[in-house]
Write a structure and sequence with these properties.
Four copies of one chain form a homotetramer.
Chain A (H helix, E strand, L loop, with lengths): L8 H26 L6 H8 L3 H7 L3 H16 L1 H4 L9 H17 L1 H13 L4 H28 L8 H12 L3 H6 L8 H19 L3
The structure holds a DNA duplex (21 and 21 nucleotides).
Chain lengths: ~210, ~210, ~210, ~210
Amino acid sequence: MNTSTLPSDQTLNAACTAKRQQILDGAATLFLHNGYEGTSMSQVAREAGVSKGTLYNYFDCKAQLFSALIEAVAETKLRNVYERIHSDDLDCATTLQRVAEAMIRTLLQPDSMMLYRIIVAEARKFPLLADIFWQRAFGVSISTLADWIANRAARGELVVDDPVFAAEQFFMLCQTRIVQRHRFELPVDKSDAAIKTVARITSESFMKLNGAH
Amino acid sequence: MNTSTLPSDQTLNAACTAKRQQILDGAATLFLHNGYEGTSMSQVAREAGVSKGTLYNYFDCKAQLFSALIEAVAETKLRNVYERIHSDDLDCATTLQRVAEAMIRTLLQPDSMMLYRIIVAEARKFPLLADIFWQRAFGVSISTLADWIANRAARGELVVDDPVFAAEQFFMLCQTRIVQRHRFELPVDKSDAAIKTVARITSESFMKLNGAH
Amino acid sequence: MNTSTLPSDQTLNAACTAKRQQILDGAATLFLHNGYEGTSMSQVAREAGVSKGTLYNYFDCKAQLFSALIEAVAETKLRNVYERIHSDDLDCATTLQRVAEAMIRTLLQPDSMMLYRIIVAEARKFPLLADIFWQRAFGVSISTLADWIANRAARGELVVDDPVFAAEQFFMLCQTRIVQRHRFELPVDKSDAAIKTVARITSESFMKLNGAH
Amino acid sequence: MNTSTLPSDQTLNAACTAKRQQILDGAATLFLHNGYEGTSMSQVAREAGVSKGTLYNYFDCKAQLFSALIEAVAETKLRNVYERIHSDDLDCATTLQRVAEAMIRTLLQPDSMMLYRIIVAEARKFPLLADIFWQRAFGVSISTLADWIANRAARGELVVDDPVFAAEQFFMLCQTRIVQRHRFELPVDKSDAAIKTVARITSESFMKLNGAH
DNA sequence: AATGAATGAGGATTCATTCAT
DNA sequence: TATGAATGAATCCTCATTCAT
C-alpha cells in the first residue's frame, strides 16, 4: 500500500474537520442572517462551496446542521463577557460597569441579536438547542457572575442572599432600554455614550440592591 | 321597509366582521403555535373553515393577515397588566408587587409567550409590526407605569429622576428567572409560590432603588 | 300597475344597452391593453364599475364577453380607411397613396395593433371571432378597394385581371417595413415622413403593377 | 483511466444536453399548440417526462424556458427559405418563384404559423424575444434576399434603388391571400396549385417592379 | 468521499364562475 | 336586476432529501 498517495488518518480527520468547519461557516453566515426557515440547504451548499451531497454526508438533515451550528456559535458569543468577570483587582462597581458594558455591546452585535431571535423563535421546535445555547451563553455568564458575587460577598463587599438570582437580575438590567428596544427593531440611541450610561446605571442599581451599605 | 328579508347594514357588517374574525381566530391558533413561516395559508383556510379564495378576499397576502392578527392580539395581551396600575389606594410596594405578578403571569401565558417569540423573530421582516406590538403592549405598559411613578414621586413616596427608565427597569426585573427561562423552554418552577416570590423581590428591589429613604 | 315608477321597455332596453356598453367599454380598455389571458373578469368589473354578478348577467362567460367586444371594436377600426376609397374625383395614384397612408396610420394605432395581436394569437381558440374580425375589418377594406379597382379598370385607368387579389396585394404592401416591424416591437422610424414614403412607394408600386400602360 | 465506469465529459454534457433537449421538445409541443399563457409548467414537465423540479434546474422560470425555446426554434424555421436564395445559375424570375414558394410553404407549416402567432402576441411582454426571432427568421431572410437583389442589380438583371426595401416588399407579397388568411383561420385554398399560383404572381410582380426594362 | 441531477410535495397566490341576498 | 362573498382548481415556483455516478 502506497501511503504517500493516501492521506493518513490525521490528514483525513483534518480534512474532515476542515470541510465540516467550512460548511458550518457557510451555514453561520446564512442562518444568522435569514433565520432557520429562511435558509435553504442549497444556499448553504453554495455559500460553503460544497455540493448538496457533501452537506448530507456531514449532517443528516437541516435540523442537525442548524443544531451543530448553534452549538458552535453559542460557545463563543458571550465568552468575552464572562471572562472579564475574573478581574479581582477592581472595586465592585467598576467591574460590574465593565461587565455590563461588555454584555450590552455583545448583545447588540448583529450575530448575537440574530442568535437570540432564532433561539427564542425556534425554542419550541428545538428545545435541546435552546438548552445548549443557554448553558453555553447565558448560563455560564450567570454562574460565573454568581461565583464572583459570592466571592465579593465573602469579602464583605456585597450582601447577597441568592447570588444566582442577583446575577440574573444584573443581566436583565443590562438589557433595559437599548438591548430590549433593539430586539424590537425600534429606533433607539445605540451610541457609545448611551451604552455607557445604561452600564453605569445598571452597575449603580446593582450596588444599591446588593452593596454593603 | 321590510327588514325581515333584507339584511340591515349592521347585519352585513356583522357578517363581514364575523367572517373576518373567524379567519383571524383560525390564524391566531396557527400563527401562535407554529410561527409565521411555519404556518401556511392552506392551513389557515382549513382551520378557519373557509376557502383559500375567501382568505384572500379579506386579506391581500399572508403578511397582511399576519399583521392584522398581531395588531388585534397585541392590543389585548397586556391590558390587564397596565390597567391594574391605576389603583391609587394602595402603598407603592403592594401595587408594584401586584403589577409584577400580573406581568409575570401574562408573559407566561402560551399566547403571550408565542407572541413574544414571533415578534422578536420576525421584527427584521416586519419592523412596522414590531413597532405596533411595542406600542400596544410593552410601550403602553411602560408609559402607564412611568406616569404612576411620576405621580408617586410627586407625592413624595418615590425619588426618581427618569420615571420611564425606572419603569423599563421594573419590567425587565419582572422577567428575571421564570419568564426568561421559560422563553428558552428551560425547566423552571412556574408555581404560584415561585411567581409570587419573583414578584415580591421585584417590588422590593424597585423600592430599594427608587423608594423615598 | 303603476307604470310611472317602472321603466318602460324602451327605458329598460336603453338601460340594458347602456350598461352593456359600459361593460364593453371597460372590457375594451383592458383586453386591448393586456390581451385575453392577461385580463381578468374582476378587472373588467372594476373598470366598468359594475359587480361581477352583473357582468355574468350580460355575458355568459369570459369568452363571450371577449367575442362581443371584438365584434364591436372590429367594426370601427378600419372604417376610416375604406370610407376614403370612394373619392372618385382624384387620380388613381393620389387616391391610393391616401388610402395607403390611412391604412398605415390606422394599423399603427395602439388599439389596432393590439387587436391584430390578439386576433392572430387567439384565432385558434376563437375561429369564429377571427372570421368576424376579418369580415368587418380587412375583408370589407379589401372588397371596397376591389370594387374601386374594378371601377377604375372599367374606366381604363387600370388593367387588372383579379381586382380582389390586387387589393390584397395593395394592403400587404402597405404593411411593408413600418407596420410589420412595429408588430415585432422592433425599433423603426414611425415619423410622418417615413409613413408618407412607404405610402407613396406602395401607391407607385401598385400603379406599376396595375396601371394602364 | 477506466473509461467504462466513469462517464466522459462528453457523456455528461450529452446527458445534460439530452435532458435539456427533452424538455425543450416537450415545451415546443405545448407552447406551439397552446401559446405562452395557455401552457403550464406542470404540463411541460409531464409532456417532457421530467419532474417540475428538474424543469427548474434547467430553466430559471417559465419566461426563460419559453425564450430558450423560441430561440432554438426560430433559428431553423426559415433556413430552407433563405438558403435556396444562393442559387446563381437560374434566371431571376425562376429563383424568386422558388423562394416565394418555399416561403409560403414554410409559413403555412403549423409550427411556423404558431410561432408567428405567439411572437406577435407576446412581443410586448418579450421584446427581446421578438427581436431575436426577427433576426434569426425574417431578418436573415430579408438581408439574404437583399444581397441577392443587389448582386443581380450589379449584373444588370434588376434595377433597384433600395434592395432591402425591395426584399421586404417581396416577402410581404408572399403572404398575400393564403398565408394572411390562414393566420386568421379563414378557409382558403392551400392546395399545391394555389400556392404555386401565388408564388408565380409574386415573382412576376417583383419582376415588374424591379426588373431591367 | 464527493457530486449535482432528479424528485414531488408543498408554498403563496389568482381567477372564472356561482349563488344567496 | 344587481350585488359581491365564496369557492377550489390551477397557477408558478421552492426546497429538503435521495441516489446513481
